[in-house]
Write a structure and sequence with these properties.
Shape of chain A: elongated
Number of strands of chain A: 12
Helix content of chain A: 40-55%
Number of helices of chain A: 12
Oligomer: homodimer
Largest sheet of chain A: 6 strands, parallel
CATH topology of the largest domain in chain A: Rossmann fold
Largest interface: A-B, 56 and 57 residues
CATH class of the largest domain in chain A: Alpha Beta
Strand order of the largest sheet of chain A: 2-1-3-4-5-11
Number of domains of chain A: 3
Strand content of chain A: 15-25%
CATH superfamily of the largest domain in chain A: Response regulator
Amino acid sequence: MPLGTAKISDVAREAGVSEATVSRALNNHPTVGPEFVKRVRAAADRLGYRPNGIARSLRRQTTNVLALIITDVSNPFFTAITRGVEDVAQLGGYSVLLCNSDEDSAKEATYLDVAAQQQVAGVILAPHQAGSDVSRLSAASIPIVVIDRPLDEPFDSVMVQSREGARAATEHLIDSGWARPACISGPDDVATAESRLEGYRDAVRAHGFDEIFVHTPFRAEGGAAAAAELLDSANPPDALFVGNTQLALGVMTELQRRGLEMGRDIGVITFDDAPWATLIDPPLSVVSQPAYEIGTRAAELLLDRMKGTAPEGPRAVSLETTMRVRESSIRH
Amino acid sequence: MPLGTAKISDVAREAGVSEATVSRALNNHPTVGPEFVKRVRAAADRLGYRPNGIARSLRRQTTNVLALIITDVSNPFFTAITRGVEDVAQLGGYSVLLCNSDEDSAKEATYLDVAAQQQVAGVILAPHQAGSDVSRLSAASIPIVVIDRPLDEPFDSVMVQSREGARAATEHLIDSGWARPACISGPDDVATAESRLEGYRDAVRAHGFDEIFVHTPFRAEGGAAAAAELLDSANPPDALFVGNTQLALGVMTELQRRGLEMGRDIGVITFDDAPWATLIDPPLSVVSQPAYEIGTRAAELLLDRMKGTAPEGPRAVSLETTMRVRESSIRH
DNA sequence: TTGAAAGCGGTACCAA
DNA sequence: TTGGTACCGCTTTCAA
């Protein structure tokens, strides 16, 4: 028998004890004689025994893995969240499986299904839409923490005050002397896109400015197309509040293509910080979200929900954004 | 009984057939009467039946999920690979679980263990080191495809001709008139870092130049520290070949801090393209790897290995890099 | 404290 | 073609 193929019955035979004793010994059950523990451990080592996680899960009805479902792996915002989740999950003895729903409800549903089927211990979900169907998880009583975007059903959640951040960013644009700020927003069915747009509207309305905005997918090409549309319009904006990093990539490419310099020809501020934001010319002003903390807080909520130490009702964590004014938004 | 909690025995009762028939009907087994299929489907729908993946896996000894283990989720290179893997996996009806080993052998080992325990159908692995222990997967005869970095044991693999790419990049630096190119390389125990360094050495040796290099972790801080060290040395380099995107982020930050302009004061070319490479000033020259294709090819190899349609021995795919000369490497 | 045995929820063999 | 049932590997009562 190849090493690492042994099952519990083999170990039992090798150690001369029952399967039950092997199981208890290996799981540090207190009622096992120290002599037996030693014998079982030795036998297990000799055989290279590794428990079959599937069988264990089937019996225990749970695993020691968490699922983290995000909408875009290539967005630094979500990878920062991922690191936060991983760090606290690891401390708690859990592994995290990352699933990329890619802003696609069908893929999201598949992963929700996989999570339920694999009986993960808990799920952290950035829902594509508020209506995402998590009933399979609920049916299996798998705890859920919702992040980034709200879900219709009430769960523990970690959100960011996007609207306030967006409003502040737009105010900043106006304060800097830009007279016609527009908003390049994400898809109109994505909550974060909407609340950032709302924040923008709050600000322009307060100042009696026109509301100028366009919806586009959270991708670089979307940003480029939106920027082009706005700039080609009859009465183009002189400043842009951009909905996220991916959009910003496209927007800046388009500005570059047109020879427009940020801060001189057009004011730009974008949602989410990025590691390269200070390297471009001029440095990009941003509204930064505490991404890593979103991850750690979410994982903490999940872990104590799993432990059963959490209070009854849903807990809502709301984090603030930080505006980092650099040069792209400053008129000169 | 809450919806979605039904098990196969419930469906059998509801449909008035045996469990065996339910199983066969739901799995499109050809030997089931069409009348029965209809009845079973209806009963399953009524009860909101969803098969328990764990139980199925235990019996079938496999799942329809793949694991993709990468070393750094926040590196765009790996997220591009991820998209490639996901796209072909989905076509084949598989979900992919992404695991971030974070350049840490212990985490990697944990995920390898999880993969084996969860009995994933296959694994695509970017090993931290050539000695990574995949014996648990082999013992469970789970197919493996190795990407990005070699493994001591022979498996299907998709690699990139890093050394050639690195050599070409360094030659380009030299051809552009830089007289003292140095290399900022990754950790000396990471194969890609080593082969890029080798490529650099090939080039400088061929020209009789000094070999100047420093090893540092694949992180922005590592890049910054390495750049500082080199620039502060007695005889500093006038050009830099940088090992990857994360390092480049740090290197450029350090150059900026010192007021050094790429292309004018120092020549820079880096391994891996990044979405923001054209947005910085001056645009960054890079050696681009076909990341998305690495992902698709790896998944293809894995899928037909799983189907059993692959030839006996390991297949090795070797992809080429593309140099994209922009301005940071051009002397002016 | 230890062992026997009953499942966990499906699947697939064998018999009818 | 359908049904009965052993079994996948482990955990956890229940008895001894």
